[in-house]
Write a structure and sequence with these properties.
The structure holds two protein chains of two kinds. Chain A is α/β, with parallel strands linked by helices. Chain B is α+β, with helices and mostly antiparallel strands. Chain B is built from five helices and eight strands, in the order βααββαββαββαβ. In chain B, the strands form four sheets. In chain B, strands 1-8 form a two-stranded antiparallel ribbon. Chain B has a two-stranded antiparallel sheet with strand order 2-3. A two-stranded antiparallel ribbon of chain B has the order 4-5. The N and C termini of chain B lie close together (about 10 Å). The chains are: A alpha/beta, B alpha+beta. Chains A and B meet through helix 8, strand 22, strand 23, helix 9 and helix 11 of A and strand 1, helix 3 and helix 4 of B.
C-alpha cells in the first residue's frame, strides 16, 4: 500500500482522489487543505453572491465524499516544505508526513502589484476563495460604491455577483478592453457594451496611481470614490514548493503528459501546473476547472500505478454576464473567418486545415462540436466547415462519422 | 448497457421524439395540456438538412467530458447513466462547451437538463424511442 499526499483541496485534488480510487487502489490518501472547507466549486462564489446557489449546493462533492473515498483531510494547514530525499512533507503545524507520491494541487494566489497607499484602504478584498466572497458579502450594503481593479474573468464575475446588492460598480483595467485574456478587441467591445447597459462603469487602459483612503487616483488623472475595493488583477501559480527543491518551474510547475514534475514521486495538477496546451503546441498554465479535474485525475491514476496521459488540454471558457453567453477555446492564430447575425458574432481561426480556436458571442448552441474540432485537430476538409460555422451540428460530418458518433458506444 | 442509438436512414424528420421527450419529462398526464401552445425544451433534438435527418441525445459516454468539466459538480455518472442535479447547476453552459455531440441544451429557465433515458420519470424507458414511428432511434445494447 502506497501513501499519497495531495496538497490542496480543490478540483484537481478531487480529480486525483477519484483517479486513485478508479484504479481500485486501497492506497492511503491524505489531503492537506489550507482552507477550512470541504471541496467547493470555486467558480461558484460569484453565483453565491448573486443568490443562484448556496453554501450547501455549491459543494463540489457530497458531504461523505472523503469518507467514501477513504481520505484523511487535514484542514487549516499548509505544506511548508517537501523533502524528496526523506520522502516527507513538512506541515505548517510542525508535523512531518511520510509519502510515496505527492500531487501538488495547490492552485494559485492573487497577484497584487505594489500600489501606493493601498494600506490606507479600509475595506479591500480579493475574489478567489469562498472566504473572500463571505468577507465581501459582509462588507457590502445596497449603497456601497464598489471599485474593482481587474476586468478579467474574476473581476467581472464578481461585478455580476454583487450587482443587485450594491449601489454602483466601477471596474478598471490596465488593458484597453475587458476579458483581455480570452477576447479580442471587437468581441470585448460587445461584452463591455452589454455590461455597461447593465449599469457597470469602466475605466480601461488605466491603472491606479495611488489610493487615498476611499479614493483612487488613476494614472489618467481620473478619481474614483469608493466604499469597497476588490482586487482582481490576476493570479500566480503556487510554484514555491517545487521551486524550493529545484524542480522545474516556469509560470507554473512544469509537468509532462503524465502530470509528473521533474522531481521523482511528485506530480502536479490544476492551476499551479504548466502542462501541454495542444492548441498551442507548447506548455502553458491552463487555469480552468475542467483542466484541473482532468490533470488531477491523470495524476491520480499514475500515482496508483496506472497509466494515464493527458495531452489534449486546451484553453476554453464558457462565461455569461446578465444573460449574454460567451464561449472561447484554443488559440487565435491563422485565418479569421466569421459569422454575424445581428448581435451575434462567431469568430473562428483556421490554419493548415485545422480549427485552432474560436470566440462566440450570443450564440453558443452545440459549441462543443467546435471545441472537439479544436481538441481533436480534425481536418476541416473532412467536413463542411462553412456550414458548421453557420450552424453547429453533426450533419456536416460524413455518414460514417455520424454512425460512429450516434450508432456506437462512445 | 442499453443506450439510444440512431438509424439515420430511417429518420423521417417528424420531430415526434422531441414532443414525446418534452411530454414524458413534464410530469403531466395529458399530452395536450403538457405541450399545446407551449415552447418545448426537449432533451433530444432533430438535426439535418434537406437530405438527411437524425435525432441527437446524450450518448452517456464511457468517459464523459461534461462530468469532468461541470464547474458545479452537478453532473455525475451513476450506473452508466449521466445525470444532472439541476439544483446545483448555475447555467454556465460549460457542459455545452465541451460536449462533442452537441447533445446538451438548457431548459426554459436557463438551467441545464439532459437525457436520463426516462429512467426516473413515469415513462421508465426512453419516450423518444417508444414513440418513434420508424425505428429511427432504438434503445438497445450494442457491443461494449
Amino acid at each position: 500500500m502506497r501513501r499519497h499526499i495531495i496538497i490542496g483541496n480543490g478540483t484537481a485534488a478531487v480529480g486525483a482522489i477519484e483517479g486513485i480510487r478508479s484504479m481500485s487502489s486501497e492506497d492511503a490518501i491524505t489531503v492537506v487543505s489550507r482552507e477550512n472547507h470541504p471541496v467547493y466549486s470555486r467558480p461558484l462564489i460569484s453565483y453565491y453572491l448573486e443568490g443562484k446557489t448556496d453554501l450547501e449546493r455549491m459543494l463540489y462533492r457530497d458531504a461523505d465524499f472523503y469518507e467514501k473515498n477513504g481520505c484523511e483531510v487535514i484542514y487549516g494547514v499548509s505544506v511548508e516544505e517537501i523533502k524528496p530525499e526523506a520522502k516527507e512533507a513538512v506541515l505548517s503545524d510542525g508535523r512531518h508526513l511520510p509519502y510515496d507520491d505527492i500531487c501538488v494541487a495547490a492552485g494559485s494566489s492573487p497577484f497584487v502589484p505594489p500600489m501606493e497607499g493601498l494600506e490606507s484602504v479600509e475595506k479591500k478584498f480579493g475574489f478567489m476563495t469562498l472566504d473572500d466572497a463571505l468577507s465581501l458579502e459582509k462588507a457590502i450594503t445596497p449603497e456601497s460604491r464598489v471599485f474593482i481593479v481587474g476586468a478579467g474573468l474574476i473581476g467581472l464575475k464578481c461585478a455580476e455577483g454583487i450587482h443587485g446588492r450594491v449601489g454602483s460598480i466601477t471596474v478598471c483595467d490596465l488593458a484597453d478592453r475587458v476579458l483581455s485574456s480570452i477576447l479580442d478587441a471587437e468581441c470585448a467591445g460587445i461584452v463591455q457594451k452589454h455590461l455597461e447597459a447593465n449599469g457597470i462603469s469602466f475605466l480601461l487602459a488605466d491603472s491606479v496611481a495611488k489610493f487615498e483612503g476611499n479614493k483612487a487616483v488613476m494614472k489618467s488623472g481620473a478619481e474614483v470614490e469608493f466604499d469597497v475595493l476588490v482586487l482582481a488583477v490576476g493570479v500566480r501559480a503556487n510554484i514555491g514548493l517545487l521551486k524550493a527543491i529545484g524542480g522545474t518551474v516556469n509560470r507554473g510547475i512544469v509537468v509532462d503528459e503524465h502530470m509528473a514534475t521533474s522531481v521523482g514521486g511528485i506530480y502536479a495538477a490544476g492551476d499551479c501546473a504548466e502542462g501541454y496546451d495542444s492548441s498551442l503546441g507548447a506548455n502553458r498554465v491552463l487555469a480552468i476547472l475542467p483542466n484541473a479535474y482532468m490533470q488531477g485525475r491523470t495524476a491520480g491514476i499514475n500515482m496508483a500505478g496506472g497509466e494515464a496521459v493527458f495531452d489534449k488540454g486546451i484553453p476554453m471558457n464558457s462565461i455569461g454576464f446578465f444573460g449574454l453567453h460567451i464561449m472561447s477555446a484554443g488559440t487565435y492564430d491563422g485565418e479569421k473567418k466569421e459569422i454575424r447575425k445581428g448581435e451575434i458574432l462567431k469568430r473562428f481561426f483556421v490554419k493548415d486545415d485545422r480549427l485552432l480556436g474560436y470566440m462566440l458571442i450570443g450564440e453558443t448552441e452545440r459549441a462543443g462540436i467546435y471545441t472537439a474540432l479544436v481538441r481533436e485537430k480534425t481536418p476541416l476538409s473532412e467536413l463542411d466547415f462553412e456550414a458548421v460555422m453557420e450552424n453547429a451540428g453533426s450533419v456536416v460530418f460524413s455518414a460514417e462519422e455520424r454512425r460512429k458518433k450516434f450508432g456506437g458506444a462512445v | 448497457m442499453k443506450r439510444v442509438y440512431v438509424n439515420e436512414q430511417w429518420c423521417l424528420g417528424c420531430h415526434l421524439c422531441e414532443y414525446n421527450c418534452a411530454w414524458a419529462n413534464s410530469g403531466i398526464t395529458s399530452m395536450s395540456s403538457a405541450l399545446k401552445g407551449k415552447n418545448i425544451y426537449p432533451r433530444i433534438h432533430v438535426e439535418g438538412d434537406d437530405r438527411i435527418t437524425f435525432a441527437v441525445s446524450c450518448r452517456h459516454c464511457e468517459d464523459p467530458m461534461c462530468v469532468k468539466s461541470c464547474i458545479a459538480g452537478a453532473i455525475r455518472k451513476e450506473d452508466g447513466v449521466v445525470r444532472i442535479n439541476r439544483s446545483k447547476c448555475v447555467g454556465c453552459l460549460t457542459c455545452v462547451l465541451v460536449c462533442p455531440y452537441g447533445a446538451l441544451a438548457p431548459a426554459a429557465d436557463g438551467i441545464m437538463q439532459k437525457c436520463e433515458l426516462c429512467l426516473s420519470n413515469t415513462c421508465g424507458e426512453p419516450a423518444c424511442v417508444k414513440g418513434c414511428p420508424n425505428r429511427a432511434i432504438v434503445y438497445e445494447e450494442r457491443g461494449e
